[in-house]
Amino acid sequence: MVSPAYRPLLPEIWLQIFPLLSTQVLLEVTLTCQAFRIMAQPLLFQSLTIDISILRFQPQSSLTHASEMKRNMQRLTFYASSRVAPSVISCKISHWNIEWPPFLDSGVGDGDTVLDMFFRVLPKFVNLHKLICFTIPFTDIGLRQLYLLRNLQELSVEKCCITAARPPPTALRVDSLSWTQHDQLTAGDLYHSSSDMRWLSIIEPRSTLAIALRNIRDLRAVKNCLGERHIQHCLQSLSVPLTDKIPRLLVDVFEIYHCAATLQSLIFHDTFSPITLDVVGLSAISMRSLITYHGPYELLRVFVPSYAFRCLKLLDVKDPRRPYDPDEVINILLDLHSRGFATQLEALTMRVTHITQHLLNSICTLLVHLSDLDIHSSTYAAHDDAYTSKTIIPALAMLSHPSGLRTLALWFSYPADLPDRCPFDPERDIMFKDHLSRKWPDFEKLRLQGQGLNYFWSRDKYGTEIAHGDDVPLRNWIH
Hints:
CATH class of the domain at 289-479: Alpha Beta
CATH architecture of the domain at 289-479: Alpha-Beta Horseshoe
Helix content: 10-25%
Structural class: alpha/beta
Strand order of the largest sheet: 1-2-3-4-6-8-11-12-13-14
Mean pLDDT: 65
Distance between the termini: 60 Å
């Protein structure tokens, strides 16, 4: 039977029927292009997220463009209504069509129309506490309207630029500011430099500032901005791209670290990838974690003499999936141990080609206080020293952390035509996690994942156990 086709209700109709809907309190509602009609009683919204996409002007499909533009305008009218706007706590406006140049302010009529309307209705969100903007150009109108949000506490501008000709003379004070530079963009004859530091002068955060740079040349400009007292005492996170000039980069980073007393996290990311690989946490006393890569091992050797760290993550900056050779990991651990830092490690994450008995023995011998272990075995190597199902538990038993092992994650691969290589066998009734729980009462989390297996188990602070995936018995993990 063919389902009847229903025409979607207009926002005006929804506004009339809202009082007749359920009065159940909704803690959070997300309005998207597909599901903004699935709502209830907007007067009771605790958090309303608006997700608006800006469209690209396409003359060859003007009818479709006009229809989408009309829907966008209807949604904005609906959001800005007296029934909805006062309930909006958080708002996100984003541009998902990367091909459309977000820095174009020549008035071509498509995205600018929606943006101008959004900025004009923005002051109606009188209780807006959090505003997230993604690839949005801020014009003079946008900045002026932004200053009218008296209750704004958190502002996040990711890959947004300021196209305003006359920025406001005074700074806008917010509790938290998160600023991510836009990547260098070339679109036709349009070129926008990513060196736009005006966000740091227009917005004045009271307590928290997070900066993510995409252009390493702007690191010096950030350091100069730290001369302002309000930035010195609120910078908590700094993200910088890795380059082949690691020593010069580290000098600038350490100068910023010594200027910003509140810096808590330092993120190194690949210049050619917008995805941050991992975090290096800093504190006034010691470095809490460290990430190193295949190439710039100088990071490890420069950081370690000055700071103690407790977490080591071995990843590849160019390709996080590229594994380490076990002997390479052992050499790094020996280097740390020779300088007296290995015993401080409490967490280790690494991706290796295969797990060997020598690697396990080195981990447990050198890292005696290890409590969190995460090993990705990318391939199974059928070597004589490759790990067997009887080696991991005895090796882990050597760990002497006061609370014992808390978390363990093993990600492995093995040939499908060699089932005997798989360390799991449904014939055994004793679960691996039961053995770990008996040995270490504080054991909290176990993940075993490989070809044909996906098992996850955790225990919260109240002792409640949660397990999902393939709850299979395990063979030979214990004697």
